[in-house]
Amino acid sequence: TGGCFGLTTNLATVIVNPVPVISNKSEIICSGNAFTTSPATSASDLAPTGTTYSWALPAFNPPTGITGASAGINQSSITQTLTNTTTNAITVVYNVIPKTGNCVGNSFTITVTVNPSISVNPTVVNSTCYLANNGSITTNATGGIPFSGSNPYIYSWTGPNGFSAVAPSISNLAIGDYSLTVQDQGGCPISVSYTI
């Protein structure tokens, strides 16, 4: 009745983008190195393909002493090279907003601890004469994250004719090249070379 003899149906495709859910992250790096955080879907995170990340200028604690930090917009990962210009560790906190398509997730934080670099502060004294073997290299390491106790740094020397030593300073040296690696508790070793 009513003159209706058929029913017409049209199909509509609806795409539902998931909302990204990212947990807080933490990183530890040495001064002058880069960190990269690329969230991926896991037991604690939902990071759909194509998710982008934006953040404002991060906060520092203490508030000065970091270079290389900046804001980012619609990036595929969070990565920056940070330099700590002080002698103490500094934390850098990024407040990041994830976005998949038009779906914006809740913000999450990335806390990056930037350990300071070690400075060797060497004094090099060359041999007075050929074959005198009276050269010396004195170091006074500072910075980094020293070990507690009487030995704040670990020293490892190598040199000509199988020379090796673990003291901060070396003497009675023959001519040649001497390489030094200094390690600290922060995991940021420095390697340098000197010529006598």
Report on this model:
With 196 residues, the protein is an all-beta fold. The N and C termini lie far apart (109 Å). A hairpin with a 6-residue loop joins strand 18 and strand 19. Strands 1, 3, 4, 6, 8, 9 and 10 form a 7-stranded mixed sheet that branches. It is elongated, with a radius of gyration of 28 Å. It has no helices and 19 strands.
Strand % is 35-45%
Helices and strands, in N-to-C order?
A: EEEEEEEEEEEEEEEEEEE
Put simply, the count of helices is 0
Rg, rounded, reads 28 Å
Number of strands: 19
Helix content: under 10%
Shape: elongated
Low-confidence stretches: none
Distance between the termini: 109 Å
Task: Decide which structural class fits the backbone.
Answer: mainly beta
The largest sheet is: 7 strands, mixed
Query: Could you tell me the mean pLDDT?
Result: 93
Helices and strands, with pairings:
Layout lengths: L24 E6 L2 E5 L14 E4 L3 E3 L4 E2 L4 E4 L2 E7 L5 E11 L2 E2 L3 E8 L2 E2 L3 E3 L9 E4 L3 E2 L10 E5 L5 E2 L4 E4 L3 E7 L6 E6 L1
Parallel strand pairs: 1-10
Antiparallel strand pairs: 2-7, 3-6, 3-8, 4-8, 5-7, 8-9, 8-10, 11-14, 12-13, 13-17, 15-16, 15-18, 18-19
